[in-house]
Fold each of these.
Amino acid sequence: MKWWPLYGLKKKWTERRTYESPVAVGRIPGSRFRRSLFVYVIDVGSSNALNFEIDALEAPQYNIHRFGIYMTDSPRHADVLLILGRPVKAMISPLRETIDQIPRPFGIIILDDCTDNPVGLNDTELLNVIAEVKGVPDPSQLLGMLLECLRVNGK
Amino acid sequence: MNILIGVLQKEENEYLVVLKEGKACLVASESETTGKEYLNYQILKEHNLLIKGEPVSGYGVFRFRYGPVTSGLREAGSFSLYTYGEKILHTTIDLNWKHRQMEQSMTGQKPDDAVKLSEKVCSNFAVSHSVACSLALENALGIRANTLVRNWRTLLMEAERVYNHLHVIYKLASAAAQKVLASHLGALFEESLRINKALSGSRYLMGINQINHINNLPALDTIRKTIKDYQGIIFQFEKLYKHSLSNPNFLDRLHHAGMLSREQASSLGLSRPSLRACGLEDNLNGATGEHLIALPVVTQQEGDALARMETRAEELVNSCQYLIDHLKVSDIWEGYNVADMAVKPEGEGLGISHSPSGAVGYYVVIKNNRVSYLRMFTPSYPGMHAVSEALKDQVFTDFPFVYDSFGVHFTDAAC
């Protein structure tokens, strides 16, 4: 059997291209995310397309680590919270608890995939929202948004 | 074999939705004994969002809650694992965190709007939900979909199967810390979503299927490119899969993890990979009544996470080959692709499709061209019961192999 790492080196998947953000990304007061951005993802009622897009964003075509972008396993290590979906009633409290755990300064990006769907709560009055997208952005748009966040908040 | 996938109330009478040799039918529950032959009857009748909610107790037994906010389980849902520190004794699954009341949202909608909403029940099963919903609505409205529509629905369902199966195997490889394999599979997963986008304009094949109508039929050049792309997926996947099967580190993690017996699988009303991995056939491949030849039913014997992965891998290759063979001749399919036709203003109908993880069923009643009653039966609901069963006596490190191998989703189960 061929050793897996050697197998992996044969193909270069990473793409060299530019990534555009579909929306303007706001500045987080007091932030200085120059070299890296740690992102925590929370699903509060998405239809699952966004969960799949986050998995796709971690595919080697995008190779997000080369830009210093990492998905973190804990909100306590996060710079940015990515909220997937429009919150259902049961998830409001866990969402607020998660936000309380994030160290300051931090930003929130809301991805709302339920635009034509009369489910979930519309107004959760969250602070520090730096971007909000209606619909399901593809991974290149998600990456564009995170890169824009680094650019805006790294100054 | 007969599989009970749902129980519904209609005008104060109870009806069972049963798959008989892959075909869906409504069986009236006329006597007290009806339904008792199906062991999952009570589960489906109650349709409790707290699965196996009875706690267990004993010396040193404690409850460990996993979710709804944890990186190991990205979807909003939670497991309560009862353990004394090693073996999982019992698992309770709470679906309330993802309950979006989709049935209520779809009630009162126009038929076309209901089909659109059905795609949002679980986006990675968008085609399966949309096809089952539109079939139910067509049956209610007295419409027989034309050949072109039925054939394209079949192809779109296979395209959905390809990316979902790739996703499940990618998750299993990630959980087993097979970084190189997982990265390659992740890349193929992204490629398959890009193929969907090129073919239909949507990465999740949304907005294409309607009542007796297919939107955005692809041009011939696009179809030729798609065929080449699927050939590439088969070539790369088979090479990777063969390589992974020679890796004992990977196989040992999946072997004997989350085993289900044939009796358990059939009593829970499972279908497609979860049932077939136990050596049982559901004859579900021809369930949508399409004109195209049905795919062979792939089975394995062991009933563990490895068998479920092997079933999915074989189905994935079959689906890609099926797409290649049929896309080549798709330009000669005939169909009057007309949205408006004379329909009944009222009626009731049942529709069934086969998603990557099992049977999806819809029952609808239409009055005054609006959906007045709707029930949906999703594969993830019995799948979650199966996860709970399969986790019994496992250690926590086997949790991701058990959960991921069933390919179930909270959004689909809670709907």
Amino acid sequence: MNISDPTETFRQEARELLDQLEAGLLDLEQDPSNDDLINSTFRALHTIKGSGAMFGFTAVAEFVHEFETAFDRVRKGQSKANTALIGVALDAKDHIHLLIENPDAPIDGGTEILVQLRAIVDGAAVDGHGEAAPAVVAAPAPAPVVVEAPKPADSGAKRWRLTFYLPSDALIYGTNPELLIKELAGIGPISVLALSDRIPDLDIIDPEVSYLGWQVDIEVADDPTAAIDDVFLFLRDNMELTLAPLGGEAAVAVIEAPAPVVDVAVAAPSDDAMPEAPFVPEPVVAKAAPAKKAKAAEKAEADKPAATSLRVPAERLDELMDRVGELVIAQARLSQIANSSSDTALKTIAEELERLSSGLRDTTMGIRMVPIGTIFSRFRRLVHDLSGELGKQIEFITTGEETELDKTVIERLADPLVHLIRNSVDHGLESAEKRIAAGKDPKGTVRLSAVYSGAEVAISVIDDGAGLNHERIRAKAEENGLISADAKLTDQELNHLIFAPGFSTAKEVTALSGRGVGMDVVKRTIDGLRGTIDVTTTPGKGSVFTLRLPLTLAIIDGMLIRVGDGRYTIPLAAVEECVELPAGVEANAKGRNFLDIRGSLVPYLRLREVFGLKGQGDEHEKVVIVSSGEGRVGLVVDQIIGNNQTVIKQLSKLHSGIKSFSGATILGDGTVALILDTAHLVASGQSYVERNLGRAA
Amino acid sequence: MSENQEYMTALTIRLEDELFAVEASRVREILDLVPITEVPSARAFVGGLINVRGRVVPLADLRVMFGMERPEPDEDTRIVVMEVDIDGEPTIAGILADKVHDVTDIESASIEEAPKVGMRWRPEFVKGIGKRNGGFIIIPDMERIFETPGGRSTSVAAPEERAAS
Amino acid sequence: MTKTILTIDDSASIRQMVAMTLTAAGLDVIEAVNGQDGYDKATTNTVHAIITDLNMPVLNGIEFIRKYRQHPASKGIPIILLTTESDEELKRQAKEAGATGWIVKPFKQDQLLAVIKKVTGA
């Protein structure tokens, strides 16, 4: 049972609608006459207004109302959705967002935005028409209400006679005369007489049509006109009704004369919340124009397939993951028992259970996985704004939006990516003049991509700007005491200096990127996600920043290996292949641990050494080749035991600093096994290679 | 916290030939010896991991911090699973005990500060020394002991050996 | 017998608010997210009244009412349309399509209950 606050639900809803609105506006800028986009923009505004008013966000409702009115010109084709308009509209969207997050704080800026909006809309008017308020002109209708000359009611009259007949379709359309009469009884004591004069003969009677009339005498001191109007609120326009005081004068007081309805400005909807005034009878002549608009908007919607989704609190997902984790562990223990048993029935069911739990695991993991496109979209707005502010033309390309990551990882990635994109746009891309001088397209390109790579996801921010300036980096690092003047650093090491705390190459502190302190925070955030960040650069051509993150945080397929007496798990997705360690390789190695794998040299690490174990390895050691990003390393183990489903348990602070391990798991026999951090081991292998060969293998 | 003005409710455990007291309210359970998975490259103080009801729990050996001998476990050896604060964060950890005695109340009045000199172990790891039945009970400062190097405060941890095998 | 009200609205917050209001008053509530979903639920469940929003994807409020009124199950079932303005033309269309009544947004919870009481007696 969902017991959350509807106001909070509205807030979440509004946030999503605002995101849609922003995306729609950005798309509209590229395609200004797209009616579908215009209508969906309108619809988003409309919903925010309606719901906002419902939940007490009056400032929001009022602002959006004005926004809607101004934007209405665009909808009617009287104004074009040009860049200036979109710009103001985006500002308006930001304002709405502020209002929703802080409904009580007085927030300025709304009026200016509206003024700007109106100015642009009027200025960009296509036909130069003034405020055309299509008035609904009424033709005098055949008045179904019985009208007599109005005469004031006599104050002494205490009994009233109400006579009415319902419209013929009233019953079918849900009106219940019994309830009407009950309501009338609420006004005062009544006596009711049913009028059967209009009931046709039995052979032609249609049981669903309302033929009956009623004569109701009501005892009440004051004029019951208003109260009776209220009872018949929904029916007034096409029912028959007379009301007259009984006794005393013969004058008949009537409810309403059907005045011709004029001056209803449809373009400016009235602000009244509830219809207090008695319902004025409608002209029967249909008015075509307003209906068509509504239909067009609704048609656009009808073409979209309804997406059904469900909101679930994140804690419930976590609980579900825990349960599945426990199930996997228990199933592993069962499999172990089954393996060493000769009971075939047991073995069969254990296998079945393994298959089922694997499927359940995949499905559950899938629930937490969210396409990275969900955060990519907000960057469009960022680049759009940056482009305007810096006066740089920027082409922003995204690929791999469908790449899925764990929800929690994605949320924590947003800030680092913002930093990186800002950095690329602000410092990486040169101004248009510089680019032309360098023979480049004046429009700079920033590309954001996400792709799977083994057990990781690689997210890259690529720009075709000037690249990292190594001299400047060096100078800055020396200036800030990070390196000594005569320190020898490879290009890669220079590149990595930008992630060091206390470093900044920005000549000026630009308002946008701040002091360039973002980079060390970015690195720390990525470290916290057990990921890595890398940068490669080519002077004059551009830079590539790559984040690598582990794919899942909870349950993976693992390969169980033994080193000495201890058992360890390697994420299977990182494993490329397994080979035997060629005999006599040690003797020939001369301290250089490399394997020849089909022509390429792969460095290897002896896990015994890495773990500080004494003694010799087994006779036929195996090498598990794992990869991370571009690098590979072979891990020498005593034995490869097999594959298992590995429920990842986080290590406590006491052990989380040990780089070789990324977590722990519980094996089928109940013991704990550590999970190897393949990215770190590959990196170790790489630096070993670099130290020994002086270059990357 | 069971420590109030008058007394501290403590679980007494034996390490080597000394009695130690840990806060009873923080103890989750007491286990017989279970298989311990060694963590290569870990500090000797927390060289192992154990499985407690499906949870991976680090195993701490206070004897390391107090420079004691560490004989092989025997049938009296127990693991006290309790909540400790590591750099301010509550965590579940297991403590090896040569023997577990009982839960007892130690009168706060009888707890004295550890003498700065002349004591067998590092004073910064000892919160106080209480008296019971004519003997001494050492009340360890768990927060200090479990502080990670580079953790919150600036106190110096005891020199460690790498996990030898 | 407890009356069941079907509420059709693409806004989760409005649906939630309506459902909370009605269940607190002792009614059962079924929710639908658009006109088509509403039609499916209205024709496969026993409902005693329907509250529907106007602007919804797939099938809007008035389209829903028209479609539903063609189904025999709809006879006598009151339908209340939620509208954002007291647009006379809109009300006329709604009635023509087969709506029983309307509520203008924003509305308070007791206004909602009053209208429900008016058309269902509950």
Amino acid sequence: MPIPDRIERTLDLAQPPERVWEALTSAEGLGGWFGNRATVDLRPGGTASIEWDNEQGTRATLTIAVVEPPVRFAWTWGIQGLPDSDPRRTYVEFTLTPSGGGTRLTVVESGFAQVPDDLLGTAYQGNVEGWAEELGELADYLDAAA
Amino acid sequence: MQRPDPEEVAESVFAALAEPTRRSILSTLAARGPATATDLAELLPISRQAIAKHLDLLADAGLVLAEPGERRRIRYRVNAAPMAIAQSYLAALARDWDSKLARLRQVLEGPD
């Protein structure tokens, strides 16, 4: 049974697209339903930073890809649990369609199953070997300083 | 290198982790660094022969890498790449859009 590369949800909201757009794209909105605090530079190529009030102090940086008010909003972000150095990012796209005074909102997140060519190559093995090398460098540094 | 099928890679990770002896071996290698089958036999309540068999299987699946060590003894170390692929599958299951979207609906409806 394949595990999905793509997550898709549709929900019908009573509010018009303009209000839903505001909740999806403003710092106040994203900091209200998605995280606990947010800053947003709302333009293609801009970044948004989201923070959560949990013990780990989780934060995420989104790179905004599409801003078409009040129809389409998209960003890319890293995959949860993977190191920051991991090249993989998933693509999240919201589509807002007017629907009887309210909004039909579709969210699609895709790219979980991507495997870049270099993933099984040197990049990852480098991470593992890195510890021994870095500890060696630390020892050299301390020896030199002594 | 041949392009891996992510599903096959993830399956080999989950199959390896489903077996308690292999879990112990991988945890020990992750915690203590590269080790030979003999090193592992001293650390774990399992025979060296059984450990060697599991290490072969883990190496075939690409989850550990065999490297020549001192006195031609083979040392094994964890290979992180397959774990990272399995992890992205787990991330898809853990992303939890359902509770976030329920919260969005709540926020839009406002305090009542």
Amino acid sequence: MQDRIKYWKGIEELENAPEFEKHARNEFPEFLPVNETNAEGASASGKTHRRDFLKLLGFSMAAVSLASCETPVRKAIPYLNKPVDLEPGVANWYASTFYQDGDYNSILVKTREGRPIKIEPNNQSALTSYGTSPKAQASLLGLYDNNRLRYPLIKNKEASWEKVDKEIASRLANVNGKVAFVSSTVISPSTKQLINEFGSRFGNFEHVMYDANSASGLLSANGGVIPGYDFSKASVIVSIGADFLGSWVAPIPFAKQYIQTRKVSSENPAMSRHYQFETRFSMTGANADVRVPIKPSEEAAVITAIYNAVTGSGAAAASVPNAATVTAAIKELQANRGKALVVAGSNDPGIQAMVTSINRALGAEGTTIDTAAPYYTKQGNDAQMIRLINEMNAGTVGAVLFYDANPVYNHPLAAKVASGIKKVNLTVSFADRANETAALVEYITPDNHYLESWNDFEPKKGYLSLAQPAINPIFTTRQMQDSLLVWSGSRTNYYDYIRNNWRKISTGDFNEFWDHTVHDGVLENGTSMLQVNTNVVATAPVIKAIKPTGIEAVLYEKAIGTGDMANNPWLQEMPDPISKATWGNYVAMPRGMAEEMQVVQGDVLKVTMANGGVIELPALVQPGQAAGTVSIAVGYGRKLESMPVAVGVGANAYPIATVVDNAVFFTGPVKLEKTNATSPIAQTQTHHTIMGRLIVQESTLNKYKADPKAVTEYVRVATHEGPAKPTTISLWDDYEYKDHHWGMVVDLNSCIGCNACVISCQAENNIPVVGKAEVLNRREMHWMRIDRYYSSDTNLESQDLGVVERYDKMEDPADNPSVIFQPMFCQHCNHAPCETVCPVAATMHSSEGLNQMAYNRCVGTRYCANNCPYKVRRFNWFAYPNNEKFVNINTTMQTDLGKMVLNPDVVVRARGVMEKCSFCVQRIQLGKLEAKRENRRPVDGEIQTACAQSCPTNALVFGDMLNPESKISKMLAHEQGERAFHVLEEINTQPNVTYLTKIRNLA
Amino acid sequence: MNKKYILGIYDDEDILLDAIEKIRAAGTKIYDVFSPYPVHGIDDVLGIKRSRLPIAAFIFGLCGMSFALWMMIWMMGFDWPMIIGGKPHISLPSFIPVTFELTVLFSAFGMVWTFFIVERMIPTFRVNVFDKRSTDDKFVMAIEVKEGVTDMKALNNLLRSSGAIEVNEKEVVK
Amino acid sequence: MQHTSPIREPLITGGKTYHDITEDVCRQVEAGPNPRWAAAFGVALIGLAIFFYSVYRTLWFGIGEWGLNKTVGWAWDITNFVWWVGIGHAGTLISAVLLLFRQKWRSSINRAAEAMTIFAVICAAMFPVLHMGRPWLAYWVLPLPNTFGSLWVNFNSPLLWDVFAISTYFSVSLVFWYIGLVPDFATIRDRATGPIARRAYSFLSLGWTGSAKSWSRYETVSLILAGVATPLVLSVHTIVSMDFATSVIPGWHTTIFPPYFVAGAIFSGFAMVLTLMLITRVVFKLEDYITVGHVESMNKIIMTTGSIVGIAYTTEFFIAWYSGVTYEQYEFINRATGPYWWAYWTMMTCNVVTPQLFWFRKIRRSLVLTFIISIFVNIGMWFERFVIIVISLHRDYLPSSWAMFYPTWIDVGIYVGTFGLFFTLFFLFVKFFPVINMAEVKAILKSSSGVTQHGHHPHANVVHGAATDLNTNTKHSNE
């Protein structure tokens, strides 16, 4: 795909630089570019602005692409003269970068006729190649969010940019008191520099960074940076409450490193051992070999124990829970000096200081910690923010600007922030909508969406990347950086600013260097640009013990993260990896507590917080949740009409967070009362154990080492010639695949359950969102799902029980279960039960092994879905497009703007037809056509399904099983008889999807 | 010209059967007998041949069967072959049900239509029956009268003696 | 040919004559609507209204109006479909099979039973169409070339076999029924006084005269039709059962289904016939034609088929255990003890336990108890299909997809509505068509009611009676 990436304006720039410069300055017009085109139509060049055409066309093509869903084409605008590097129907890719709350992804933006329609990984990046996070995938939807501000606001009234600029500039000129720029972590070197330059004009300026999910404890213990953890070098990993695969610091790079130590093969059956001590059941915990549920207040004890043992010091330690496991962990850590890594999620500088010295003592620095390249993805400083809040209330702040920060919602001292804002003379927010904070400020100067903006990033020291616009600003918004430049009276725009900034590190001819970097999107040659404040006094390893009071609650990030993406229906409907709950948060409690309180799932609980605040949330019984604790996700309970998708979904849990000596802890004591109300939780999976069935297989590393052929159990059918492979017993000869035979391998060892594939599939295949009510009706439409099974204490062999009770007990998960994830989607069976039963032959097999659906032939008997043993078929129960019932749910199919995200290569399905995974047949066709045009066979890897492409751990391998050189063929050949198995092989459906048995590294 | 008939009305099937035999023995030709329900044994005494409708039914059935098989084999195997559930294009076992149904359909309908045709049964508004009671509770024997040939008195007596409860004449306008 | 042992109780009581039969049966048709009929018809129309409303909701908003979900793709729709088809079978069985076996007692009930068949099949046919996501394209299941090319239907699909089975079954039953009606239409025609009635019924009677030759062909046709209808009726429910038997879902994939479904169909069909007959005979005073004797013989059949069904249920369990397939085993444990246990035990009680009461002659011959038990059987058989369809689907192979099914008001509305449809048709039938096959009853009258027809009425009356209704150009011969 690399060769299909287009240079941004490459030709124009090289050919006629002056012309280009002129256009470049008009990069961000402050009025609708449509007019601009007309105005410029007769400009000297006679050339018109490329992106305007793209945009006009974008709108039109949205309608065109919907022709397939039986709605009339509303408008179609032909090209008068075709833009230079755009072929209708052929996609362009632009390298860019997604960053939010530590989640960094270097990406490619796929655009069709000028519309960004898909986020794909940028394989040039060493940090996040081959795979993205679900948030990065879903971030695309934010671009077409109907509720974004379309113009600046003054006191919530529409205003022109001129007016806003004039007023703000003049008021900044004679501001008295401190000028504060509040933001979440900024990892953009140029932006940071720009902010400081902007502030340098004022006597008293401060750039305050804080993170809703803070890591300031970690930072202060490590000199203002996050240690360059490298999980790939670790053979023993001990994590105390750090969800490093899901939401901690830099999940995607960590996941990529981590999985390198988890992939096994019979040649190299080496695997790291992963201990996880945590309160809530996190995705990381689900992947751990040994998981110990502990209370937040017990983290200190565990770490102190390790600290004392490893460093030989004698810090005071409370009694350790699960002492045996802790000692085992310690033994292994010590046995693996230089190959061990300890991480902690706590925000307590003392704890983090201990962890640092533990790692030092274990010789991690230089091995499992790259001291030369720390992470910058979290830089928020709680103390600084809290100090500012006090100053605001004290009235010593003259102006405050909020960029990418919403403290009135996501800071534990939200109330004080709100009251503080009132005391500040000049308040500005760059928010893209009137969020909780922006609603209180005087000026909202809406920022562009990141896909409309230029920017640069440095998530890790020496790893630079760029973001370039993939579309012109859809609304009259303006990038924050440009606003700052305007207000500080500068003539240059931010694009030039970045370029000038990068000239410093340029080697050779700058334009060449620049083009190349923009093309690649990343520059990872070790050069560093970001200024970070590293003169931080390392804290002493002394723990501010949290007093265990009553029920301890922990906060965590669910699908929508810290809440900035709450208006994103894809994420709202993305099931939680563990609880499988969509749409909203809940009180996750251990079974013991539920029984004690006589609470069943869905009972609404009154949650009283330390600050006296009360929220009401339904209860969810969560196996593996530490006794005496509950966990609640943040980011929900929005009330603003600026995010209608999120309104009425869950409740705001941020106030639970506690502040202990200027550090924000994501834990706090709560009181729970049962109310009489109930509110069902929309889960996509309501049954949690495998009921002793051979549908997903796992074994232990020791067994695997002993005999790789013994880890997988194969079903045999008794015949008169003795046991036989089910697939060998068939009435007829099988169809012979001559050209291609597409298949997929799913490595259960690699799947961490992150859901990136689910969202990627949803974006690629125009899959509708159905909303909480319909999920409760068990009608979610996801083609790709990740089944999550808990282990149970009872199994088929538990002979002490009668058969009925045994099955009954098997439905209950263990109290601290082990978890296995199984990505499940159409298995493309070669003996497909669904094909046989369709009366109208709407589903049949392709000559390349694909199980195909002809949507417009389907009459919707649902017989195929009934007869599918994998239950992967999805039915259009209603008309999801253009249906007011789904206007704030399935936003991608209602408005012209929303529809722009639809993939024109995939039809939007009509009401009453069946749909399912197609192995991204549109991509297969494209790949074959490209190869045909170049008169060659498709190269392995050039055709990728959306799910496989976006899997950060490469658990999914797609390819042509007839091509002996393909990765999949090699894997299958190798794993045959070892880890490779088909789900439900005994019913002889002969799937084209093969699973690899999960191996656990148990002691 | 008009046709003239003598009708012997009976009210019991056994008497009717005897009467028929007697009258035919007497060498009189019976035009037809009308009854409210099928009188068993009347075929023999009237010398009505066994109907050949079963043969028709059988032939139509054969047609149905061959049509069904041809249709499925041609559609699935030749006109538009598809890979369905890994089965061969022409998988006879799954053709059996439809074949059977069409066989039944053809034979049933074929036979019924034949029946209607041979009986000239078509929806009509005017029907002339010799005696309306023949669809209620009487058995009507009709004997054609040939002008000058038939001895009315003898015939009348013959009918009466055979147990007719009443003897009528009827002219049918042609 | 028709030998009846003297000890057998008469099938028609009350010393009826041929003429009485004509009178009794035609009365309903010729007299104005009787108030009880009108009331019942009104109720039926309300049901029909419910049907139309629910159908409108389904067609306008989509199948989402029902309680189905990604795991349970069929529930009430196909349950009702199979249930109605099953009910239909009794009609054909009574008219065809019993005709072949020369069971004379069928004569008084076969007409109504056949009508019931046809209406039941109409109700049944509603569901395969309505349950489609895009019912306006229902004609695509016929072997017509696809609009954009010669893409035909898939003859491997049991659902397609259904299309052929049901349509054949419906049309053949219709013909069979109509053939039976022709002579009786002729009777009504010849009695008709009003011009409209006369024209209407002469139109329907296809100019039937009842000549000896016609009768002999007529009997051949009926016999052959009966001959083909018998395997047909067996094939229909066999094919319906194959919808499930040929699938891979535990609880569906069962070779025992064809016989088991056919037995079940006869079982439920006879129950329904009884329910209807017991009402009709009272409403239209036909006690002399539908006697306790009829009821008893039908109860015997119900008892037999009920026991067959019972054996089938137990066999399923045995096979599940014997096969050693975990999925199969769990499926059946789940049926009896899972979240839908109540449905399963309702089925067992109604279908297996209650019919056993018919071992007692008293109960067999008690009309009230028969009525109650027949209702029970109808309920039980509905639940049998519900158990098979929903309980098998809601927990199949992958526990991750296990789900529950809860019906919506639209589900209920459509089901109740089909009763409205059914009874509307049935009441129209009993009002305008002869409910009892007069010709056949007359044919068996002599041999099976103790009374001879002879001398029942002196000649004279008839002569005069006849004279009066002789047409003008006929002169009286004994003057």
